[in-house]
Design brief:
By secondary structure, the protein is of the alpha/beta class. Among the domains are: 38-137, P-loop containing nucleotide triphosphate hydrolases (Rossmann fold, 3-Layer(aba) Sandwich); 210-309, no CATH class; 323-447, no CATH class; 472-562 and 571-581 and 594-647, P-loop containing nucleotide triphosphate hydrolases (Rossmann fold, 3-Layer(aba) Sandwich). The chain has helices at residues 54-69, 87-98, 116-127, 139-164, 172-179, 183-192, 194-231, 235-238, 243-252, 256-259, 290-322, 332-339, 342-347, 350-378, 394-404, 408-411, 417-432, 446-457, 485-496, 545-565, 568-571, 595-609, 616-619, 629-646, 679-688, and strands at 4-6, 34-36, 40-45, 75-80, 104-107, 260-261, 282-283, 474-480, 502-505, 508-517, 537-542, 575-579, 612-614, 667-669, 676-678. A hairpin with a 6-residue loop joins strand 14 (667-669) and strand 15 (676-678). The longest helix is centred in the N-terminal third of the chain and has 38 residues, at 194-231. This is RHG35 protein. Residues 293-320 form a coiled coil. Its main location: other. It is found in: Cell projection; Cytoplasm; Endomembrane system.
Length: 697
Amino acid sequence: AATKLASAEKLMYFCTDQLGLEQDFEQKQMPDGKLPVDGFLLCVDVSRGMNRNFDEQLKFVSNLYNQLAKTKKPVVVVLTKCDEGVERYIRDAHAFALGKKNLQVVETSARSNVNVELAFGTLVQLVDKSRGKAKIIPYFEALKQQSQQIAAAKDKYEWLVSRIVKSHHELWPNVARKMQPAPEFQDYVYLEGTLKAKKLFLQHVQRLKQEHIERRRKAYLALLPQALDALVPDLDEIDRLSRSKAEKLLEAKPDFSKWFVVLEETPWDAGDRVDEVDSERIPFDLLETPAAEQLYEAHLEKLRNERKRAEMRRAFRENLESSPFVTPGKPWEEARSFIMNEDFYQWLEEPVYMDIYGKHQKQLIDKAKEDFQELLLEYSELFYELELDAKPSKEKMGVIQEVLGEEQRFKALHKLQAERDALVLKHIHFVYHPTKETCPSCSSCVDARVEQLLSTRFLRPPHRNPLGETNVDRINLVILGKDGLARELANEIRALCTNDDKYVVEGKMYELALRPIEGNVRLPVNAFQTPTFQPHGCLCLYNSKESLSYVVESIEKSREAAAGRRDGHAAQLPLTLVLVNKRGGGGGGEGGETLQSLIQQGQQIASKLQCVFLDPASAGIAYGRNINEKQIGQVLKGLLDAKRNLNLVVGSTSPGLKEPGDAELRVVMCLMCGDPVGADEVLLPILQAQPCRPAPG
């Protein structure tokens, strides 16, 4: 109850966190060590204490108040721990205060931070009368107001966190520094403290992580049906397998690693796998989840339904073929009652059986028309006495129908009378104007087929090269490869040439021009074709996955550029893909690729680009060396053959002939073996689709 305190050279503490850790905080001493007391907070614990008699406690408080009252200093009674307060204790404390003159009571809870500031504010107002009088609010009313205030502050703080924190990798110290200037952060920390602010942050981060995992799970589950379709499309293979055996079957599939990945740490969502954004393969342990099991069962059910529908489609077609009620031209409405049964309705949708019936009708009609055409040819004498304009009278048409009427092939088209009459008129027109346009066989007409074969198998005479290169004794070769591969091989080939860059192929000397390219082919300096260089072929080199990707990208860019220029020669440039290695290279590709994997990748790319593929094994050389002279000769021979084909010109005795297939052709090329033959030799082999002599290979 003293009003003057001496505390010389004592440290000032601002929070209990500083106790025992004074060196970690700013140290301030009390000024002069003297502290006058202006007022007192008389604290009364109104919670239920162990072995404590509240009446005795209230007597102690009463005696203490009497001592404080002697100081003539303001006193405020503060009821503490009201969050656990006993109602009788609170009433008794208020009754005690009522017996004193102007003694004010504030109900507080330090744990809930309710009315703590009000208690000090009330005392300050009593000390300094110039201040406005504080309104004292009962504990439960203040608690309600504070709860509302905290809820509003929490909403704003959570909004701030959601705006700033977008990744579940964020850490609290970094985020707290970012949020420090924001009033939403300051208000919530003031009301609830830093620990609760951090707790809400961690909850938000955990929610972000779960949302990320769920997105990945949905992506994997969306991909799973495609994986099952690709790996186990056959129902017989999995129909009676248990789940464990089905999983073993999947692992044994060659393309298993394309769709799935087996993780060392499981489950997949508990490790680092969830953060591999670029990963598109499905964690294999995902198959153990209920959602994946449902998709597997759905896959089985789909295969069973597809088989059943296929059986129903087959049965429906067989029903159509065996039914005597389905005739050419009969509408579906008339045939339905004779064809359909409950199974067809259950398993086939209307568009499906309508499509099957339509296709079957087309086959029936086409066969009936073909038979009717044969019938017309058999009765050729009916059409000999017509007028030259080939327009028969009604009487003549009646005679024709009367003669043919008893024939079954005539009756087969009784529901297609208009088409039957049109066939008769078309046949009459053909009799008097026999051309390939009026031939009843249409596209199967021999004359039309010969003309079509000649036009598709023979190349038109190529336009003269703007560079004037018509001499076959020159070979222009592009060498494509990154990281020095192109330059190195170009130097090796030049070392095999004569001093004037000549190279011998099959005993003949050719001038060899090389253009090594290692950069972006869209740049003029790396273009395949220049004003002074017209390529005849391209040698594509690779020794790793990266260099193979460069080759593919360069070829695609070159073809796109050729398509933009409408340059058919550049778009069809002969390519040869070769697996090589730089000098001094090891026994595998860069990045740890094995020889076998590089060969397989090269074969796939060669198939995609439709080009020749050479690998070290095919030439009998060890990996780690570049291609040998024999392989270079094979490549150049292939380019020469392709160049000759492009320069092939079909000759004729008439200067006015421009297209192959004209009647006056003297020399043509056999469509099967490529040899020039006389016009009198070419027709029969074409029609029989046989070579005029055994073709090599």
